[in-house]
Amino acid sequence: MLKETILIVDDEEDIIELIKYNLKSEGYNILTAITGEEAIKISKQARPDLMVLDLMLPGIDGLEVTRYLRNNGETKDMPIVMLTAKGEESDVVTGLELGANDYISKPFSPRELTARIRAILRRRQQKVVESRTRVKQEGEMIIDQAKHVVTIEGEVIDLTLSEFELLSFLADKKGWVFTRGQIVDAIHGENYAVTERSIDVIIVGLRKKLKQYAALIETVRGVGYRFKE
User: Fold this and answer.
1) Is this prediction's pTM over 0.90?
2) Domain range 5-129, its CATH number among 3.40.50.2300, 3.40.1390.10, 1.10.150.20, 3.40.720.10
């Protein structure tokens, strides 16, 4: 069985070679880039299954690459794992808001990075299979999980990947209350190292975009969030 293709983007050759060696040993096909511009070009041409993206790049940085890819129809659903240096917490939050799927801090364990990648790709495949015929509707709001599209009164709502997955997760369990930690595990996988603040930030952005349907996402004080029954 053919393995997925992963694009590694970093301006440090040693980092690229370390990641490349470990992922190739797992059977993945590997592409590499050392600049943000090159990463965008390869992403559009080769359509890799996942990108490992360093935030600190010459020219277009990792956040700009993420923003571009999420706003491009051909690449908007490609999973992105960010590589970050210590002290870049604000950039991590921004990256997650833009739609990155996960992050890992340097210095990192190649084994942990490989495990994160494997989990993301496995969840992605499971969601493709599970969501082929799943459409949910609340009034004039339609959540099409197969097409990864939300529409309100026929207008497509521009959601980040994290916003869409969070909305889909809550809508699947109407009336159930979930903690921020449970939401993180559901949309990004267990042991996803992200602050609870980032979930709150995603919720704020999601509510703004849902307009008159924002009230469907209810805050349960001291616990978390739920989708209104």
Assistant:
1) no
2) 3.40.50.2300
